[in-house]
């Protein structure tokens, strides 16, 4: 099909849409982003990224000016004190310890990777700058209202500042959030569970600053978080989802939640920023329908406790971006795109499970109090603590990418950020991945490997280096950081792996 505006149209210029657009543009595929809002919205959303998402940023050179949050891991003694605190109805939250993570407002060890505690909007600004540098056209104030697709392409109906217009493209990525128009129009089912909670996250002024101790507290009706200077609140009540999620939030509505949870007559005098949220957990049945893909919140929604949303969405974007570019460029067949669903859908499903469990563990009442005591005892054991931390930070993720006996035992696992020595100095794998190109690391395999990969030299970087912690003599790393082939697999199987993931060679060696 002759596309008019761009080969790929991304609907939604939130963090995931911008990330995906950058991922596709890295491979010289023209992308347009259509974003409903004229500018970035500064209502409270994610306050940082954690776990694997920090690594994803590093591997693209994003947010590099932002200092990582210093980590002060609590000692075993402190953890025991926190666990003891959990036995009181008003429990101190371990957030008192910088760098600590929580699951259902219970303490977790610090993860392997540090946090980047920045508002989501700063990330969106950084991604917007990167998108502009990569030549992505971001059209703000453009709302997608409909689309049709056939074998040739996708036709979008767009409402722009100068009126409605039609846009033709080859591929459409719906990154338009939890209430995704693209998902609804695609006919992809969105099964799951309804919310059972209503919560608010707010920066607000109150008339009585002694209304409650600052901290995180379990209450008869749910959870109350209060932090001083400037006053910040999170509330969670188990009284069902909001009646109307689109209704403007009045100070009285929020004040009601504060009064019910604190048991005081506190008055809200001013609300600076506020969001209302619930915990419905739903996932698109498939992430692809023909020429249409769903990415980020458009593909899955769940409660945001412990902050999985951005991490999951950014992981989706780096999984599918290079695949979409390869298919759009005609290098790979469409079946490569099906690996997006087969690899990412199980990860999304697991996140929904974890988030449902976390909501269940925050329910008020003596039975859950008892359950939390059991849980906190378990979490005092390092092994259990580490396992849950890895789970909520996506550090455990691996993909089923074929028979490891043929392609190497590391296949499907995330490549470590190895420090490599080359004649010019040292370099990390993360730095080598900033181009978004696949990487063949030759750490001891010898010149034969480079010769085998030479026919793919237009799209695969081959780096020969020394490494003290080399997990294998050679590794083929996909743009999303996952190992696609490694020794001790027979080097003769490398061309098959290269063809499978990056298409047949452009020319013969
Ligand atoms: C109160 C709150 C706290 C949160 N805290 C955290 C946290 O601590 N950590 C975390 O990881 N996550 C958190 N999240 C979740 C996180 O904000 C989301 O997971 C993240 O924004 C998802 O990014 P996205 O790009 O997929 O979707 P969105 O950010 O929703 O972006 C979708 C974009 O699409 C645009 N759009 C929608 N429809 C159309 C259309 N028809 N045409 C054109 N454009 C359209 C929207 O304007 C929007 O800009 C929180 C969310 C909330 C609400």
TrEMBL record:
<keyword id="KW-0560">Oxidoreductase</keyword>
<feature type="domain" description="FAD-binding">
    <location>
        <begin position="6"/>
        <end position="353"/>
    </location>
</feature>
<dbReference type="Pfam" id="PF21274">
    <property type="entry name" value="Rng_hyd_C"/>
</dbReference>
<dbReference type="Pfam" id="PF01494">
    <property type="entry name" value="FAD_binding_3"/>
</dbReference>
<dbReference type="InterPro" id="IPR050641">
    <property type="entry name" value="RIFMO-like"/>
</dbReference>
<dbReference type="InterPro" id="IPR036188">
    <property type="entry name" value="FAD/NAD-bd_sf"/>
</dbReference>
<protein>
    <submittedName>
        <fullName>FAD-dependent monooxygenase</fullName>
    </submittedName>
</protein>
<keyword id="KW-0503">Monooxygenase</keyword>
<dbReference type="GO" id="GO:0004497">
    <property type="term" value="F:monooxygenase activity"/>
</dbReference>
<keyword id="KW-0285">Flavoprotein</keyword>
<keyword id="KW-0274">FAD</keyword>
<dbReference type="InterPro" id="IPR002938">
    <property type="entry name" value="FAD-bd"/>
</dbReference>
